[in-house]
């Protein structure tokens, strides 16, 4: 039985921008359909239009039927009825999606109390049993807690329970695990699959993660620029993609089991092929970055101190790349911040190019520290000043460290932009007019402006689409090859680390639990935590077959 | 338990603040030109004996530190000293005028809360539309009117032209008559603050309207009014309360101008007059009163914060 039937749906903004262009897809009861695509492909918008959550003034054509109700022609009352009993949605970031000023109990029961007119006691009982069914440990206690008292994974379970309060026929999941750690993701996916099976719901699962889609969906719909480019049986689409876009997307997606494949980057001005990283590392014995017994504790009033980093030691040879992997809270970002001098270590020392860099006190020391190590941050939307042009941002970094003339500095800026595959017109651009990948490349150019010895990349590609990520990684690889740059690459994504780094350390609650060659760690993990991390990465059951097919 | 300790901590900080404020208020007298003894002896030929006698009578011959302690002990017993101009206890002089100012401030405060919130909510809910623009333009125009100009316009229109309200004084002392007399002054006092409160309300609500939790609530089938009430307005209270706390001092100070315009004898006009006549004990008492009101209101808002935003109780880390 077809539950959701979208046919030739188009959506135009009042200014004439076409965001959806003839989207057609169906979801049957009990079926999981994956909606896959990169940011801006219209996948979230398609999902929101099912619930009537459209941008104001949007004009739609085509048809969208849910349970026989035509959503596009529905009255306001019918839309409320639809949201209250037919379909509900799980959003990406539970931290943002649950009102921080109301209790978990209120979040779960408000729909029941206000929409279904259920008495408070009954609503509480219903919320309690739902919290139990999504696997939360202490439901009665959680009902009285506020969102900030729960972890992200627990909150996403609360969000799922909240979406299930109305017993919907269709559950829409909009990137429900993107904001979560990989081990947490595995638990959430299990809960979703279990609930879908128990309730016979249809599920529309939106994700940018092809491996995730492949591992849980029956069918997938691939969306690009508001159009469906391919749809069909999940296995078929992944093993034998027909559309060129799908092929490119699959090729750009790093996976754990395919280490050294050719990367075909999406349309880009960056080189499309990555050489295997092992070739890059010059056989250098001297350590460029050396960290010994580094520790940091955070003290919060009235609470136990938190050991963010415990006795961390490692070395990166000149021109090498070290991956640091671990989940949120493992201390990897604190480690990076200490190395670039944003935090002061409690104990231990940091040596860069054989110079002590642990404590910079004077302005001159801080500048010297900054010269030796630079950082690229996770979110290029936040790390570039929105009021300063890209070229100016790089020029500022240059001038802080160098008293060179304006013309000279401008020429250097262009050379740097050229290095990351951008040109003069990008130098004049405000950050908001650049795409995410272009911004991150500007951030890299700025970090490289003063020719640091070490580049620290803290989840620098996590916020980017896979094709853009491939471009950025290609830029980093080329610069490493050309300039022998030493890189500390922090990521939660094991597959990306595999592509970039020869050596890897695994961190758990502040301590390094395993270290060694990346391939050895990923292929034959020794520590149980590393094994857990690797096992949690979603992969389709037929994954082995793909490497066999040309 | 932790809540009790927190409140106790705030109370300690409050008392310390008040003590420091009292020192500032008292010793500032020694910084301004003018000598209370010469005011007391005005019109007479100041002989050395007369100066010494008056100084001793008012305790002005003691070292400043001693004078402060005497004053502080008095203040703690409710004795603010004697007014130099009225030759009466300061507490009596202020006590006569305080009800007018309090009435004015309470009435204006009510108007600010009701009209300011309403205008802010209407603008935020209709953001980007004609209604929002109209409210914003109206607020900007009103906000540009200084309260003395506003007072004159109100008197000209509602008292002189239409004759609906009295233009002068506070009436015969009856409760209803006093309220009636305070309507125009309260409006004159409230205007600028209504603008501030509604602008904060609007921007705070607009910020919340864009949040994902609002979309989640909408997607669950809640009506728009329930979403606005339970998620948008509820979450906007924090900034509104913070700004309101800061406004209290401004309200008390601005009342001086309005009282003068409407011929009300409240503590605002008393303050201006006492500064003019170097009546230090009265000035000190009024300033201390305003400071106390300000500090206490803001301390109460501080104490309320964990109830307004549960995250603040967990410390900065919880965001």
Report what the structure shows.
Chain A: It holds the Pfam family ABC_tran. Chain A: Residues 1-250, 289-534 form the ABC transporter domain. The complex is a heterodimer of chains A (550) and B (319). Chain A has a six-stranded mixed beta sheet with strand order 6-7-8-3-9-10, sandwiched between helices. A six-stranded mixed beta sheet of chain A has the order 16-17-18-13-19-20, sandwiched between helices. In chain A, strands 2-1-4-5 form a four-stranded antiparallel beta sheet, with helices on one face. Chain A is of the alpha/beta class and 550 residues long. Chain A has two domains: 2-252, Rossmann fold; 277-388 and 452-548, 3-Layer(aba) Sandwich (Rossmann fold). Chain A is 40% helix and 24% strand. With 319 residues, chain B is mostly helical. Chain B folds into two domains: 2-76, no CATH class; 97-278, MetI-like fold. Chain B is built from 13 helices and no strands. Chain B has helices at 2-27, 36-40, 48-58, 64-76, 90-125, 130-143, 147-161, 175-209, 212-219, 224-261, 267-276, 280-308, 310-313. The two termini of chain B are 23 Å apart.
Summarize, please:
The complex is a heterodimer of chains A (550) and B (319). Chain A is α/β, with parallel strands linked by helices and 550 residues long.
Q: Enumerate the spans of chain B where pLDDT stays under 50 for 5 or more consecutive residues.
A: none
Report the sheet-strand fraction of chain A.
15-25%
Name of the level-1 CATH class of the largest domain in chain B: Mainly Alpha
Number of helices of chain A: 24
């Amino acid at each position: 039985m077809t539950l959701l039937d979208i046919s030739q749906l188009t959506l135009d903004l009042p200014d004439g921008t076409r965001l959806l262009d003839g989207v057609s897809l169906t979801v049957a009861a009990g079926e999981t359909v994956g909606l896959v695509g990169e940011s801006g492909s219209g996948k979230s918008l398609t999902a929101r239009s099912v619930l009537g959550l459209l941008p104001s003034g949007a004009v739609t054509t085509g048809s969208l039927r849910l349970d026989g109700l035509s959503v596009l022609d529905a009255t306001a009352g019918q839309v409320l009825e639809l949201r209250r009993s037919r379909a509900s949605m799980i959003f990406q970031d539970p931290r943002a999606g649950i009102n921080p000023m109301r209790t978990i109990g209120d979040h779960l029961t408000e729909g029941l109390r206000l929409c279904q007119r259920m008495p408070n006691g009954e609503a509480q009982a219903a919320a309690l049993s739902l919290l139990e069914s999504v696997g939360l440990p202490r439901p009665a206690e959680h009902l009285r807690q506020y969102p900030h008292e729960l972890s992200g994974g627990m909150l996403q379970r609360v969000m799922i329970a909240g979406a299930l309060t109305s017993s919907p026929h269709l559950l829409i999941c909009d990137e429900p695990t993107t904001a979560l750690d990989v081990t947490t993701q595995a638990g959430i996916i299990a809960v979703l699959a279990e609930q879908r099976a128990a309730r016979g719901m249809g599920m529309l699962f939106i994700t940018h993660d092809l491996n995730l889609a492949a591992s849980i969906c029956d069918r997938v719909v691939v969306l690009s620029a508001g159009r469906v480019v391919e749809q069909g049986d999940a296995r078929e689409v992944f093993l034998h993609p027909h559309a060129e876009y799908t092929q490119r997307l699959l090729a750009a997606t790093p996976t754990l089991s395919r280490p050294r494949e050719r990367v075909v980057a999406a349309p880009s001005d960056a080189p499309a092929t990555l050489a295997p990283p092992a070739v890059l590392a010059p056989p250098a014995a001297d350590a460029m970055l050396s960290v010994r017994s580094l520790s940091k504790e955070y003290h919060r009033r009235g609470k136990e101190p938190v050991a963010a980093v415990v006795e961390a030691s490692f070395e990166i040879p000149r021109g090498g790349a070290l991956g640091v992997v671990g989940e949120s809270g493992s201390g990897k970002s604190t480690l990076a911040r200490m190395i670039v001098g944003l935090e002061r270590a409690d104990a231990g020392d940091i040596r860069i190019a054989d110079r002590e860099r642990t404590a910079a006190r004077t302005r001159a020391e801080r500048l010297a520290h900054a010269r030796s190590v630079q950082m690229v941050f996770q979110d290029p939307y936040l790390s570039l000043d929105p009021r300063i042009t890209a070229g100016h941002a790089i020029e500022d970094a240059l001038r802080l460290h160098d008293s060179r003339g304006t013309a000279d500095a401008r020429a250097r800026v262009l050379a740097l932009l050229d290095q990351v595959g951008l040109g003069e017109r990008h130098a004049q651009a405000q950050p908001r007019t650049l795409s995410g990948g272009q911004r991150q490349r500007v951030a890299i150019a700025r970090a490289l402006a003063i020719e640091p010895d070490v580049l620290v990349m803290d989840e620098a590609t996590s916020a980017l689409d896979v094709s853009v990520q491939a471009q950025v990684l290609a830029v980093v690889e080329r610069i490493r090859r050309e300039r022998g740059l030493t890189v500390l690459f922090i990521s939660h994504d094991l597959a990306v680390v595999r592509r970039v780094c020869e050596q890897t350390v695994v961190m758990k609650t502040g301590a390094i639990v395993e270290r060694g060659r990346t391939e050895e760690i990923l292929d034959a993990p020794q520590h149980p935590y590393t094994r857990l991390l690797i096992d949690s990465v979603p992969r389709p059951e037929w994954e082995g077959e793909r490497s066999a097919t040309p | 338990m932790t809540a009790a300790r927190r409140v106790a901590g705030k109370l300690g900080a409050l008392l310390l603040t008040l003590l420091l404020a009292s020192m500032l208020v008292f010793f500032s007298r020694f910084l301004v030109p003018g000598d209370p003894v010469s005011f007391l002896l005005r019109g007479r030929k100041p002989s050395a004996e007369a100066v010494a006698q008056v100084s001793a009578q008012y305790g002005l011959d003691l070292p400043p530190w001693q004078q402060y302690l005497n004053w502080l002990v008095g203040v703690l017993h409710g004795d603010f000293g004697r007014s130099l101009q009225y030759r009466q206890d300061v507490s009596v002089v202020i006590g006569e005028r305080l009800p007018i100012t309090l009435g004015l401030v309470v009435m204006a405060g009510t108007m600010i809360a009701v009209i300011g919130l309403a205008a802010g909510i209407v603008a935020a809910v209709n953001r980007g539309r004609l209604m929002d623009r109209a409210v914003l333009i109206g607020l900007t125009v009103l906000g540009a009117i200084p309260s003395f100009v506003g007072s004159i316009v109100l008197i000209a229109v509602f008292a002189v032209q239409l004759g609906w309200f009295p233009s002068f004084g506070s009436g015969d002392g009856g409760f209803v008559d006093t309220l009636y007399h305070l309507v125009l002054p309260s409006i004159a006092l409230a205007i600028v603050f209504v603008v501030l409160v509604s602008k904060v309300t609007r921007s705070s609500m607009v910020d919340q309207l864009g949040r994902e939790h609002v979309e989640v609530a909408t997607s669950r089938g809640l009506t728009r009014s329930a979403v606005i009430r339970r998620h948008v307005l509820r979450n906007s209270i924090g900034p509104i309360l913070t700004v309101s706390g800061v406004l209290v001092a401004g309200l008390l100070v601005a009342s001086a101008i309005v009282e003068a315009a409407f011929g009300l004898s409240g503590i605002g006009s008393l303050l201006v007059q006492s500064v003019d006549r170097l009546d230090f004990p009265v000035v000190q008492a009024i300033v201390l009163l305003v400071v106390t009101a300000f500090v206490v209101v803001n301390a109460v808002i501080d104490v309320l914060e964990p109830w307004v935003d549960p995250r603040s109780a967990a410390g900065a880390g919880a965001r």
